[in-house]
Amino acid sequence: MTQAVRHDSMRARNLELVLGEVSRRGPLTRAALAELTGLTKSTVSKLVGDLLDAGLLAETGPARAGERGRPGVEVVLSGGRVASLGLEVNVDYLAVCLLDLARTVRFTKRRERDNRGSRPAIVVRELEKLATEALGEASALGLTVAGAVLAVSGPVGDGVVFSAPNLGWRDVRAAEMLRLPVPVDLDNEANLGALGQLWFGTGGDDFLYVSGEVGIGAGLVVGGSLFRGAHGLAGELGHVVVSPSGPPCRCGAAGCLETYAGQEALLAAADVRSVPDLLVALESGANTAIEACTAAGEALGHALASAVNLLDLDHIVLGGIFAALFPWLAPAAEPVLAARLGRLRGSVPTLTASTLRGDAATLGAAGRTIHRILGDPGPFLSRADG
Amino acid sequence: MTQAVRHDSMRARNLELVLGEVSRRGPLTRAALAELTGLTKSTVSKLVGDLLDAGLLAETGPARAGERGRPGVEVVLSGGRVASLGLEVNVDYLAVCLLDLARTVRFTKRRERDNRGSRPAIVVRELEKLATEALGEASALGLTVAGAVLAVSGPVGDGVVFSAPNLGWRDVRAAEMLRLPVPVDLDNEANLGALGQLWFGTGGDDFLYVSGEVGIGAGLVVGGSLFRGAHGLAGELGHVVVSPSGPPCRCGAAGCLETYAGQEALLAAADVRSVPDLLVALESGANTAIEACTAAGEALGHALASAVNLLDLDHIVLGGIFAALFPWLAPAAEPVLAARLGRLRGSVPTLTASTLRGDAATLGAAGRTIHRILGDPGPFLSRADG
Lengths: 386, 386
What we know:
homodimer; alpha/beta; Nucleotidyltransferase, domain 5; five-stranded mixed sheet; 46% helix; 22% strand
């Protein structure tokens, strides 16, 4: 029994080793894999064979029947068999993303929808429709969906949305409510955005990802890992104090960053009705719009200075609508960061715009399942065997 | 060669295992140690023998010559041979602490001294006198001092104090400047205070330790480890924004927490000259003093609310002068925390006063060397052998 357990855990570790090398380095021959992992060539061949059978790896170049494992043939992550879903409920939209194991996006859909004050059950039914469409697409492509992760803005833990004041949700078991034929996990939208940025963007391994939407959240990545805090509630940048005597916030407090730089505050100050309208106004040089972004950028600078003082950050990535608004927000935020941090730290953290725009959270959500499989392919192989 | 290296690293791991069990659990027999570590009794006996010879362990009960290792005799960490120094330069004082391996404080001394604007070389010479006195005490007690750690308020890294605006220091290589016959390392005062609280206080394994002095710093402990951030500069709570339009701060910014709740702001608002005077005024019910503490407590509440939103904290420990002022600060800070966090998080973090008062940083500083030895006793044994 102990023998069997040891054998299984060694096999799991070796499968992870092989898959990890291929995932990080790209196409590799079996010989190169043996060298990189320190495993014997025959062990590598057996493991690669099992991963090919499970559809997690594929051979490159023209495949000929009965000729698996010819010298010089390389293996890569296979995008042909296994995939995952990323789902998102945001205040203004619902979104889905289908990602295969080779990290290629195979299908996305986003539906604008005003979810303010909507009953969770109704929102979840609408999201089910998008998810079902994506699952149909996966099936048509011959992909097995291993799992889904749902992104919701607001503090989340143990499958429960504790509080999403902008949706009007409280203690909602959102993942359980989703009736899908795959396991669904729940996570915070800004945390998943940070993971999306880590895996699909250009922020390096240490950064704060800021998700600007109706709510403002943040995800801290340190050494390539997400810092979640005691209950996974870290990164609530939107409720950092800008001024205690500021406008009332939906969270019950006053002067939170969201009341200055959240999407609704921004649109109201700019006197426009939507983000596209705001962008048009900014590009045409409308003063009200520019002043609204300047004030929001300054507030963002103050809140980020507090975050840098507490978290010790070098690099901040602005995502969500803040990515599109970057040319107007950053010039207001940067001088505040310099004035508040320059003398104490010697250097001022850099601000950049996420190239993923509104897709970071769904990419991070879909990526979480892919990373889980790459980090522990054993159970997936057993399922594929059974 | 490879064999030798493997043997050495296995021995190092086993020494750490044995020492770790004794450190966590207290007195243990060799037989209990064998059971707890999974090592054979003869391996345990050899390791315990080496640790006894190096003076890191001691046998309990009456020791009789030639009778080491009798059944039933327990071993404990020895406080009789190895010790470490904790040193602190703060704005208003210098301090030293001599700690033995069994974590008993053997000597402390604290000298009030106004270090504002003092040349680093002069402050360091004064500290050397205290340290030399402690080393003399160690020598008289038969203790070998394995190392010293120096606590300085302000951002610190790679042996350099980057900036201590309250001392007027900038890029000071403080540890190098200390001429002592033991290796000296440098760390931030609030980080060391948090470690002192972790090892000698009652905060559990997850808390924010707030060091209230002329400057205000904080150290975040997550799962029993200090979170240091990208450059070890995390936890600069004193420069978190309370109000962007607030009073100018020595760091170059405005409205930082320090300008509301730092020792100098507090004494000025209370119209007293020292912390003891402030305590007398508070205890006699003087309105100006009580109002000063109430305003400082409210500002502390706002800054801590930002910290809780970013870091996800359940428990906050107030140290330094904030521990003594706790009965006047906490009743002002707690309602602010409740109002800013209650609805979003469902629960409000608890505030408690550190029982270590002003000694947390020197205890943490001395404790760091002790923990290093307990975590890796091998090199110390070799030195003892040689």
